[in-house]
Automatic annotation (TrEMBL):
Listed InterPro entries: PsdUridine_synth_cat_dom_sf, PsdUridine_synth_TruD, PsdUridine_synth_TruD_insert, TruD_catalytic, TruD_pseudoU_synthase
Entry's family note: Belongs to the pseudouridine synthase TruD family.
Enzyme class: isomerase
One Pfam family of this chain: TruD
Name under which the protein is recorded: tRNA pseudouridine synthase D
Residue span(s) of domain TRUD: 157-345
Catalysed conversion reaction: uridine(13) in tRNA = pseudouridine(13) in tRNA
EC number: 5.4.99.27
Lineage: Bacteria, Pseudomonadati, Campylobacterota, Epsilonproteobacteria, Campylobacterales
Active site per database record: 82 (nucleophile)
Amino acid sequence: MQENTIFKPLYALTHTPINAYFSKNSDDFVVREIPLYDFSGEGEHLVIEISKKDMTTQEALRALSDFSGVKIREFGYAGLKDKQGMTTQFISLPRKFEEKIANFSHEKMKILSVNAHNNKLRIGHLKGNSFFIRLKKVMPSEASKLAQAIDAIDKMGYANYFGYQRFGKFGDNAAGGLELLKHGTLEGKKLKNPKMSDFLISAFQSDLFNRWLSKRVEISRFVQDFSLKELAEIYKFMNVDELKSLKEQKQFFKLIKGEVLGHYPFGKCFLCEDLETETVRFNARDITSCGLIIGQKAYKSEGMAKTIEDEIFGEAMEFENKMSGLRRFAWSYLENVSHRYNEEKAHYTIDFTLQKGSYATVVLEEILHKNIFE
């Protein structure tokens, strides 16, 4: 079997691995999409909320298309959902198909609600997703560790890495994206599907983002654990004043002057110029750090923040003009967190909400400190 080559970024927490069994099935993993806005109740489009079990979003669209006659391109959706587990999401279609969709029946999918709306749904038209996760075979000692880890992440936030889904079964999507950027071909052949090319290149961008964010987590951990003298030996590109500015910050994830920040949970990007003021706002969760998705349109960092980015992204700058680029929240927060332990069944259940584009599997790996699918 081919070796998995997915880069494993650093955890922010430092506890030992927690023993618990996780299976991404429809009983133990449930995802509910949260729409960005209320639907108007009028208009030329129909928005249906579907629940699906062990189906991709594309498979669900195909089933709806086969039943109703709606063409795939006429559907709209806010985001793709995993195949495994039970997921709910909103799908739009032309309202003229309302009668045909009324009697829809499928063994793995059902329609939960129907609303009229003025617009077709587009990618990104969601507020976030809520998650229910059930862990099994949890002993009382492990349950205590789980509670501590969840409470710690709820309090401090989490590193908003891209999840394994981006990188392919064997972790080779990013390498494929780099090959396309270098040569315009994959294994010597041009790809006929432009969406596949875009996806592989986005995997390359995501891999670099994860490597950069892992470096920032490393710096934050080292600043917390080492003296100024030791840090000066480790990070020779930082001067004493820069190291002191990191050491003075009490929160785990350290901000750096010249980095790109963004208003949280929605808002524009800007440069971190007044570090003391922005640290206060960061701790109030009004703003957060924004990592680089490399490309020509991405907001530029400055100073030491750029030096750190250049270490990770430097070689990829050669291809910057071939990618659009943007900024992505590097440090994010859980919302609506609850968790409980059923000692009799040895089950531990966790509920939380994430901003769009964040991965529950990333949060779960941070909690458990191990590969959740081993």
